[in-house]
Amino acid sequence: MQAYGPYIYKTVYAVLQSPHDAEDVTQETLLQIYRSLPNYRMDGLKTWITRIAVNKAIDFKRSRARRPEQFIDDDGLDRKETSFAGEGMLAAMPAPAAESVAIRQEELRQVQAKVKEMPDQYRRVVTAFYIEEKTYEQIAAETGLALKSVESKLYRARSWMKRHWRKEDFE
């Protein structure tokens, strides 16, 4: 526990992104490791521990997604959030905060401005692939290029971006 506890916590936290949940799942992981030690085959202890931790974190995330969220109403009573037929999963999801929407829009605006600076030969395939989310096949059909040409143009466009763009340009 002392040797691998912090490592397991970091691994679980990377999946869950919640300190409280990561602590709980770390405890469950340590118990599972202890229970599973008789089955350990003496090859790659850290890999084995990591696999158990990641699986526990994923299981926790799935079980959390299946359970409806609980919230405390104004009268102080616990109530389950429910969605009605036809509303789907989006009804149970909280609306994004106005700040995060504004940040996302600003990031998108910055990316679009940078894409406009690209040479025309790259801009078309980058826009089609990353912004319009088209497949290589769709891009090839629309532009009249061979499939391999689309692949090579995207590869060259990525190389161009690495040479000409800096991380600071997007902050």
TrEMBL record:
Entry keywords, A to Z: DNA-binding, Sigma factor, Transcription, Transcription regulation
InterPro entries: RNA_pol_sigma-70-like, RNA_pol_sigma-70_dom, RNA_pol_sigma70_ECF_CS, RNA_pol_sigma70_r2, RNA_pol_sigma70_r4_t2, RNA_pol_sigma_r2, RNA_pol_sigma_r3/r4-like, WH-like_DNA-bd_sf
Gene Ontology BP term (one): response to stress
CDD domains per record: Sigma70_r4 (cd06171)
Pfam families cross-referenced by the UniProt entry: Sigma70_r2 (PF04542), Sigma70_r4_2 (PF08281)
Domain RNA polymerase sigma factor 70 region 4 type: 109-160
Gene3D superfamilies: 1.10.1740.10, Winged helix-like DNA-binding domain superfamily/Winged helix DNA-binding domain
Gene Ontology MF term list: DNA binding; sigma factor activity
Transmembrane segments: none
Domain RNA polymerase sigma-70 region: 2-67
Family to which this protein belongs: Belongs to the sigma-70 factor family. ECF subfamily.
Name by which UniProt lists this protein: RNA polymerase sigma factor
Organism of this sequence: Paenibacillus nanensis
